[in-house]
Write a structure and sequence with these properties.
The complex is a heterodimer of chains A (about 300) and B (about 210). Chain A is α/β, with parallel strands linked by helices and about 300 residues long. Chain A has helices at about 1-5, 25-35, 40-50, 65-80, 95-115, 125-130, 150-155, 160-165, 170-175, 195-200, 255-265, 285-295, and strands spanning about 10, 85-90, 120, 135-140, 140-145, 190, 210-215, 220-225, 270, 280-285. In chain A, a hairpin with a 5-residue loop joins strand 9 (about 270) and strand 10 (about 280-285). In chain B, helix 2 crosses helix 5 (about 85-110), helix 3 crosses helix 5 (about 85-110) and helix 5 (about 85-110) runs antiparallel to helix 8 (about 140-165). The longest helix of chain B has about 35 residues, at about 20-50. Chain B is elongated, with a radius of gyration of 21 Å. The chains are: A alpha/beta (about 300), B mainly alpha (about 210). The interface of A and B includes residues 2, 5, 10 and 61 of A.
């Protein structure tokens, strides 16, 4: 039994690290138990720490770490002897919601870098939907459904699976529909040197905001055309800065676009090409229609 | 006998009896050290056995409670039904010290977070590795306390036993009470205190309090 355990990686929440060992010592122990030769265990541990970007924590004790860093160290410890499978039992338990989102993203980035088989057991459907390739829905000891997260959200087997998935099932499906094939609106975009009349002309009906771009079609700012004198120039009114964090690009999901539209002062978000040029903008009314269309078809 | 008006401390008496004093201190230190070493060796064995087999754990704890609760002289009597000699004396003190330290160590092991022990099990730590690499280091504060109690206990109990055997500082003080001068008693008790303080200091020096975590 002990030998079998040593062949697996193990993370269980709330994460328990040995309080009397530094982070490097925790990994050294795991590496040794995983079968590494005595001379190489420290090297293994250091490599694992570097891979996870935790080298700055090597000499820290668990009491000096944040809950999220403890989870990061626990995963590094589980990975460090290259196990055939990693078992993670509610590893994000006890971590703040904001840190959970980062941890999920880091887990996915890790998997993209080096795919490992992880059996991730959780009672939080958000975690399951966010990190899994395949989700097994278990209720009261019975396996009810095994599906991809998108299929699980789209077609839960019965009310028990629906209950397990929790609220906002429809909205959460939007994270699996990307905007790659959706054409943004390229009309409410004007050049910085355009006239006020031109800016007012391109504005969407009932929505005064337009996106001002420079010669290279890079975003300069948002312009509220209702403030313009029709006989003047667009530049007469100060622009509202475009927050780069609120721009979207290929690969982003409809749910991300929705979220950013709601956060944008103009209720519009620019879609940028890989080199940062504006392709068009998304507005909530157009994206709502596209979302309904995406949800009516097969989940992607 | 004590003469009326006899001084509490007479340096000239100390100078005249320095050889006897040195021998008493040496005997006391060697007997205490031997009893402590034997007691600790027994503790290592008993802790390992108690950790390995649960029924033994309960039995050893019960014996330790009895041995540490029964007055030392009674243990001595059990160990030496016919005659008291140095071997019995050191053995009896070692048994008492072992009982005291064993209880302290087991108390420390009981305090280790079960979640951590299960985590170690899940990570593939074997029983012995769990004991030596996780549980004992985490019970370090109690180990240190047990060692301090054991050291001071050994020095004190050897003094009581030494009074019987007319050896060590115990015998030295007893002799002072029977027919020695007042200085002999004062110096004997003083040296006993110094020995206990030095012993305690040594333990504190060797087993430092964990501060890193």
């Amino acid at each position: 039994m002990t030998r079998r355990r040593r062949s697996m990686g193990w993370v269980s929440g709330p994460v328990q690290l040995f309080p009397h060992q530094t982070v490097l010592e925790q990994l050294t122990t795991a590496s040794r138990l995983g079968g590494a030769r005595r001379r190489r265990v420290k090297l293994h541990a250091e490599v694992a720490l570097n891979d996870e970007g935790l080298q700055h924590l090597g000499s820290a004790y668990p009491s000096e770490l944040s809950p999220a860093d403890r989870v990061r160290v626990a995963f590094a410890r589980a990975y460090c002897h290259n196990p055939s499978i990693v078992i993670a039992l509610d590893p994000f338990e006890g971590v703040e919601a904001s840190d959970r989102a980062s941890l999920r993203a880091e887990l996915l980035a890790n998997q993209a870098r080096q795919a490992r088989t992880i059996l991730f057991v959780t009672g939080d459907s958000e975690d399951a939907i966010a990190v899994a390739d395949q989700v097994a829905a278990v209720f009261d000891g019975s396996l009810l459904q095994v599906d991809s997260p998108a299929d699980l959200l789209a077609r839960p087997f019965d009310d028990r699976v629906t209950a397990l998935l929790g609220a906002n099932r429809g909205l959460r499906r939007l994270q699996f529909a990307t905007i790659d094939t959706i054409e943004p609106d390229d009309r409410p975009i004007i050049h910085a040197k355009a006239t006020a009349a031109a800016a007012q002309f391109v504005a969407r009906p009932g929505a005064p905001w337009v996106l001002v771009v420079d010669d290279d079609r890079r975003p300069e700012g948002w312009l509220d055309t209702s403030l313009l004198n029709p006989d003047g120039m667009a530049m007469d009114v100060p622009f509202v800065t475009v927050d780069p964090a609120l721009a979207v690009a290929d690969g982003d999901s409809i749910s991300v676009v929705f979220d950013r539209i709601l956060s944008s002062p103009s209720n519009l978000v620019p879609k940028l090409s890989a080199d940062g040029r504006v392709i068009g903008v998304f507005a909530h009314d157009t994206i709502a229609g596209l979302a309904a269309e995406a949800m009516s078809g097969s989940p992607t | 006998m004590i003469a009326a008006g006899e001084a509490w401390f007479d340096w000239s008496w100390v100078e005249a009896n320095d050889v006897a004093l040195g021998r008493a201190v040496r005997e006391h230190a060697v007997w205490s050290g031997t009893a402590l070493a034997l007691g600790l060796a027994a503790v290592v064995l008993f802790v390992f056995l108690a950790h390995r087999w649960r029924p033994l754990d309960r039995g050893l704890r019960a014996v330790a409670i009895v041995v540490s609760a029964v007055p030392f002289v009674a243990v001595l009597a059990v160990l030496a039904p016919t005659a008291v000699n140095r071997g019995y004396l050191v053995g009896a003190v070692a048994a008492s010290v072992a009982a005291l330290v064993f209880r302290s160590v087991m108390y420390g092991l009981d305090g280790v977070d079960r979640g951590l022990v299960e985590e170690a099990q899940a990570l593939g730590h074997g029983r012995l590795r769990r004991l030596t690499r996780l549980e004992l280091p985490l019970a370090r504060v109690h180990l240190r306390t047990g060692l301090r109690i054991g050291m001071v206990g050994a020095i004190g109990l050897i003094a009581v036993a030494g009074a019987d055997l007319e050896g060590g500082l115990g015998g030295f003080v007893r002799e002072g009470f029977v027919d020695g001068p007042r200085t002999q008693r004062v110096v004997g008790v003083g040296l006993l205190l110094v020995l206990a303080i030095v012993g305690d200091f040594l333990v504190r020096l060797i087993a430092r309090r964990p501060t890193a975590y």
